[in-house]
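Protocol step 4 of 6: structure prediction from sequence.
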Amino acid sequence: MPHSFDFHFDMSYALDAGMGLNQSTVEYISRVKNEDPWLRQFRLKALEIFRTLPMPEILKAHGVDDLDFDKIRYYLANDQAPQRTWDEVPPEIKETFDRLRIPEWERKFFAGVEAQFDSEAAYNRIQDALAKEGVIFVDSTVGLQRYPEIFRKYFASVVAVGDNKFSALNSAVFSGGSFIYVPKGVKVKQPLQAYFRINAQNFGQFERTLIVVDEDGEVTYMEGCTAPRFETATLHSAVVEVIALKNSKIQYITVQNWSNNVYNLVTKRSIAHENAEIRWIDCNIGSKLTVKYPAILLAGQRARGEVLSIALASDQQIQDTGAKMIHLAPNTTSNIISKSISKGNGLASYRGIVHIHPQIKGCKNNTQCDALLIDGDSRSDTYPKITVHGDKNNVQHEASVAKIDEERLYYLQQRGISKAQATSLCVNGFVNDLIQEFPLEYGVELKRLIDLEINQSGGK
């Protein structure tokens, strides 16, 4: 993860679907990707559904008025397959990811890395030993071409095309994203990582990620996301589907640091089968508006789900995040811990759903939402929705909102620490227990990102 993400390169693209969204746009994407007829029809049907669905009420509530779908570029790419050696990556793209320290991180920490630049992956590599065990880690385009029997079976099985307006949009124009399959009994010890970079102006990035872990398998997947600042709005609208089969474990970690012109409107959903475990660990920094609620469907007995999230809303930023836990089987367990920080006139909201289906019992949920306000202008809201049916189920929810302790700031300042540094110390103390859930190097960089964001207006 870098210290500064705000840079971009002027690029000439070999493949460009042009500005605006229509049938020709969708057909162009499908044609240049050389897709099978079924997938082309899937995209065109999704476009029809997108046109019929209204803008989500939550976006209307946040006053979204400058998101014009006809002023977005939906596909930009160079005409080449992802490279397996770093030296083969085109120079401008390589420089981008060199500055983001992707090669360094790959050598030190990861079992495999994918780097996506605008619409397509530029680089993809997995350790040879894992490949020999049958682990698949490729971008979604390659996954569809090489592994259709697995990909098609699970594709759009967790997030329906018509789930919401932006899942339909993604289904029509998706490109890039990761496809991971872990065979039975294989435990991937080091994380797999993907990095998504928006470089172009007036651009929409619509990656589609599908992760399937077979019985008794394990994997940790980490993604990072950045974009430079532009005067015009940029759209990021991903769909992520995660399937944990019997006795498997999946950990999905996100650290995003979007610039403040990005609308980050994402649908992330997973399903945990019998005795499976899924953890979402989510950090949301930056963007103009983030709307994201990772969901876990606990579909098998003794399945376990957890969402741990950090959101930081600075000036002119809205973080509308949360989690959804749907208990569909008996003796399932879920845990939600959400921490948000607001400064300036930023707004951080927790919006969550806990639902325990009728006629099941022995389910447990714990939800904890804590918010920290840096100053008097910032705001935090909590919107929990809890529905419990059946017998012998246990649900608890607690929430707290606090303003940063002025006495503590004064105490630190009296000992030679600036107000900005003192504020950063207090914020890091507030989120430290969740940061410890990130791998060590990611946690260190996450603290630095929070410090940078807080210090922009943390005081003199």
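Step 5 (inspection) to follow. The chain is about 25% helix and 35% strand.
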